[in-house]
Amino acid sequence: MTLPMAALDTARRGDRVLWGMVAGATAVRLWFAWHFFGFLGGDDVEILQEAFKVATGLNYVPWNVRNLLLPDLLVAPVVRVGLWLGIHDTGHLAFVSTLPFVALASVNVVLVYRLASIWVGEITTARAAAVIYAFHWLPLAYGSTVYPRTATTTCVLLAALVLSGPARDTARGIGAGILLALAFAGRYSEGMYVLPLVVLCLTTGRGRAAARTRTLALLGGSAVAAAAAVGLSDVLAWGRPFASLSELWRMMVGGTGAEGLSTRPPWFYLLRLLFWMPATLIPALTFAWRKRRVRWAWAFLAVPVVLLSLVGHKELRYLQGAIPFLALLGGAGLVELARRWGRGPAAVLLVLTIAFEINGANGLARKSMAAVVAARHMAADPSVRVVALSQSWAYGGRLYLGNRVEVRDLSLPPSVSTLRAGIAGADRVGLYLSDLLSDPALAVTLTEHRFKEFERVEWGESKTVVVFARQVQR
Questions:
Q1: Left (φ > 0), alpha (ψ -120 to 50) or beta: where does 167 sit?
Q2: Are the CB atoms for 465 and 456 separated by under 8 Å?
Q3: What are the pLDDT digits (tens) for 332-383?
Q4: CA triplet 320, 322, 324: central angle to 5 degrees?
């Protein structure tokens, strides 16, 4: 089947509705990045610390399951530019580091619009899909952070767009393969999108021979590009090709696991369905089911949900690459719903969907702002040389404390025994107020070791931090 291209020409001429959505979503993400300056779970801290290591010489040893291509090539250069511009405050540099991801999140809105224009051939569907995606809480919230799936989603969308174009089957297959390899390097799990891309190859084009050519070019291009991107970057980072991939495989399949990672049941994403798929989109999806022009989107939506359900550790943010295709299906369904039920019901559902989606971004308010403020205070005190922190990533790891301060990571929640071992020789100890209230023995242990409450840091909805200082004997 040859895909419709007339709508693409219309989209290229510009659409004020589209650019208005892009501008609005970008402004929201920039405000999120500035206002919610804490951290969400450690992955963002890893990326920033690696980038600061490259750009500033921060003393940081990355986790050996990570491919470092993304932080080294996307984030570190931005940090260097910030330093060149005279920005030296760590918090300001951390904000600057989010700018490529804010920009890519906006690019993704445009790519959803373009893809809907090509697949469906209707400008109204493209607009609806773009607005659903622009304000979905997953890309809206995580697009204000340095979490990598914003960038890998860009690669997946570009690969789908490349394969949706006319003719030049070999060139387009290779190009899409290279983009898939870059997504794979950003997060290895994104390699799963090879399956829906193969489906797209086999069901588009000028015939079976062309479809096979495009598929082989996709697979070959992705294999060669992954060997270069992952293999070479791992040689530079770890001294041998595919070192991080093999270590990740050993951890996931060999049963060694990873400390602190939760294991959730296979049906987790289905149980949390209404957290990542607005209930108001369900009527639209029932109409989209019958539309042939969006059938590829179902593969891009179903494959990650199914395959990620087979992995023990699950997070809703892992589904970011599927959300553009959920939006595309929702947009197509709403347009069909408007034809049958009228524009009024469709408009109401769209408004409710956007309201639901934006509300989901409130999780950013629980980032670790209080811990970051505490880290800034400790870094500003030249007498502080050793700190023991419960959940040290919440404080930014070494980002704010720098190479001068030794950072010890206490367990969460800390037990009395681990606390005693970790605070020996420490100048400051940082614990969550909630842990101190649930286990009064922690405060008793600190008092026994001559620690006294130094400050209590609160910031919005983030977890309150209590910092203890060692009392100096006179």
A1: left
A2: yes
A3: 999 999 999 989 999 999 999 999 999 889 999 999 999 999 999 999 999 9
A4: 90
* Residue 144 · residue 29 · CB < 8 Å: yes
* Angle between helical axes of 90-120 and 323-341 (0-180°, round to 10): 50
Residue 409's H or E segment, with its range, is: strand 406-410
Q: Could you tell me the pLDDT band of residue 312, with boundaries at 50, 70 and 90?
A: confident
> At residue 442, what is the residue type?
L
Neighbours of 408 (CB within 10 A): 16
Higher-scoring residue by pLDDT: 259, 31: 31
Contact 38, 62 (CB under 8 A): no
- The CB-side HSE value for 350 (13 A sphere, CA atoms) comes to 28
pLDDT in tens, 379-405: 999 999 999 999 999 999 999 999 999
Strand residue runs (E) in 114-171: none
What residues have CB less than 8 Å from 226, skipping those under 6 apart? 181, 184, 185, 191
Quick one: pLDDT at residue 262? 67
The CA distance from 393 to 408, in Å, is 11
Residues of the chain with CATH 3.40.190: 369-470
Query: What are the pLDDT digits (tens) for 188-208?
Result: 999 999 999 999 998 876 678
Burial class (CB in 10 A: 0-12, 13-18, 19+), 265: exposed
The burial class, CB within 10 Å (0-12 / 13-18 / 19+), for 16 is exposed
Q: Which residue type is seen at 58?
A: L
Instruction: Write down the pTM of the prediction.
Output: 0.92
CATH topology of domain 369-470: D-Maltodextrin-Binding Protein; domain 2 (3.40.190)
Report the C-alpha gap between 268 and 68 in whole angstroms: 29
Residue type, 462: S
Report the alpha-carbon distance of residue 125 to residue 225 in Å, rounded. 34
Residue of 87, 50, 96 whose CA lies nearest to 72: 50
- Rounded Cα distance between 474 and 457, Å, is 28
